[in-house]
Amino acid sequence: MKKNFPGILTAAVFGITAVFILVYLLFPNLIPLSGTEITREDGVIIPRVIIPQYPDFQFFEDGISMDGLTGEENMSARIPLNYGEEIVAILNVDFDGLVETQIVAFRNLLERSSPIYLTYIDFDFRTMSYIRTWTEASYAFIPGTINLYTMDLLGDRSICILISGLNNLGEHTLTIFRKDLPPAAGTFTQIAALVIDGTIIVREVERSQAYRMGISPGQSFNISAFGRDPETENILDQIETTFAFNRESNFYVPINRTRIPGAQVEQRQVRELLGNIRAFENFLSGLWHYVSPEGEIEYNQYVYFDLISREIIFSDIETQQVFRWLNSSVTRYGLYISSQNISISTLRRAIDIELESLESVRIRVLEDMRPQIWGNTIWDGSYRKAASPEYQAQGRSSGIDPFLDAPYDSPIGRIRFFPDGRVEIHSDDGSNIGRYTFFTLNDANFLELRFPDSRETFAVTGEYPGNLSLSRVRIGAAGVERLANLPVLLTPASD
Questions:
Q1: Residue 391: pLDDT above 50?
Q2: Distance CA 382, CA 399 (A)
Q3: Which of 5-9, 151-155, 209-213, 248-252 has the lowest mean pLDDT?
Q4: What is the mean pLDDT of residues 467-483?
Q5: Which end of the chain, N or C, is surrounded by fewer C-beta atoms within 10 Å?
């Protein structure tokens, strides 16, 4: 009898496809998707964070989807939450290497003042479905300030969930939960609950090569909390309390207190800034240069707060990052700002800003994950305002200043750069007013022009205050791409 080989082959292909689909539906993490995770140098896979999205934040300005870079997914839990529970953030994480589970941060709209809760959605192999196994409240209350992530905090490879954010009094909170070991799988134990009117920092330290190779445990991280010193009249004086993990009590306990004297400034002026969102935002508006621990101003690393466009620009010699300024929350020493990257919508950055003096601030940056394309710049530290006398007395070592005070003639009209970051272009067709900044990338100069209806980036050749040539480029994950446009020559003009 003649066999029907085409029919057998079709049936075999259909069967293999059906099995592949079934495995993917039940165990989605067994089939890796390119670009959905970020792996650190030590081999640790950083979980993916999903946050509420705005519809117009999903793409590059050129229309290129960011799915391949960030593993963006729909903001939905594996199973429906209860009535009145509104999702704040979702953390997809693989604890056991078998199946991806979820940690969901939510608030209860039925409660008059709801804290941010965490719930764990695990996969039940008996029923072959997802179930909620644990729920507990954190000490954070304000959804827009939430930062949710996991890390091996104790060095024993047990995964801890960390959720930070502000409460209704404007205090910083950090709640930490440690995953329980079998047989109590699927539940977590609280090991830290910190609330303070200043800032809370996890003190990460370099761990040994043996730890990275999985041979031995690593050092547990301490936590520092900075709060008001009640025994002094200077508002800027602080006390740093250090917490360490106590294995007997299974909890973080204080081990040291250190007084940190603040700058001696006029207290009335400090009170006018602190506690007033509008006043402190106006104070931040403009350019701030990083100050090294040795006290030297690094002119190639700066943060620019664009109050008009509600954007925050982080720039260094490697790259430039632009974040939308979403909202500000008052803290005792300044502001807690929530921001979102304009290109990668799933990446949010919390910026804790403390007043150091009337010319300087201390910035601490919190973000759920860090793309490798952003380099290794550490943004935490002191920053001095560019308009301060110390800044004006020194010159930049290289490149073009971020902001100029100069007019130029060009084929597209008269261009006027203002020192406050404004730019005006006047031509026969009319006038256009926007924002600008010069920045450096890999020792090359660039100019970004931002208008209400457009945003363009140019490579800049020439030396200020002489002629400048602008060539339109696109900067993305692949680097700098020059576009096929004729250069625009800028010639210095007299007012």
A1: no
A2: 22
A3: 5-9
A4: 75
A5: N
In DSSP notation, 250-298 reads: TEEEEEEEEEE------HHHHHHHTT-HHHHHHHH-EEEEEE-TTS-EE
CA angle in degrees (0–180, nearest 5) for 324-75-185: 120
- 69 part of a folded domain: no
CA distance 342 to 58: 9
83, 109, 115 from 112: Cα distances, Å: 15, 7, 10
Is the same domain home to 255 and 283?
A: no
**DSSP secondary structure code for residue 105 in this structure:** E
For the ranges 226-235, 292-301, 367-376, 463-472, the lowest mean pLDDT is seen at 367-376
Q: What are the residues whose beta carbons fall under 8 Å from the beta carbon of 347, sequence distance 6 or more?
A: 70, 340, 341, 367, 368, 369, 371
Domain check: are 366 and 250 in the same one?
Answer: no
Give the C-alpha separation, 138 to 115, whole Å: 6
Whether 318 and 300 have beta carbons less than 8 Å apart is answered as no
User: What is the predicted pLDDT for the residue at 23?
Assistant: 46
User: pLDDT (tens digit, 9 = 90+) per residue, 304-314?
Assistant: 898 888 899 88
Q: Are residues 88 and 227 in the same domain?
A: yes
The answer to whether residues 103 and 93 touch, using CB atoms and an 8 Å cutoff, is yes
Q: What share of the chain is helix, strand, coil (3-state, %, to 5)?
A: 10, 45, 40
CA distance 363 to 382: 6
The answer to whether residues 196 and 83 belong to one domain is yes
424: in domain: yes
Residues paired with residue 453 on neighbouring β-strands, in sequence order: none
Q: Identify the residue whose tokens are 């660039």.
A: 446
The neighbour count for residue 120, using CB atoms within 10 Å, is 23
pLDDT, tens only, 37-79: 333 334 443 343 443 332 222 222 222 222 222 233 346 888 9
What is the reported pLDDT for 376?
A: 54
Taking residue 89's Cβ as centre, other Cβ atoms within 10 Å add up to 24
Residue 159 lies in a domain: yes
* 60 φ/ψ angles, rounded to the nearest 5 degrees: -65, 165
Distance of CA 73 to the CA centre of its chain: 18
Q: Is the pTM of this model over 0.70?
A: no
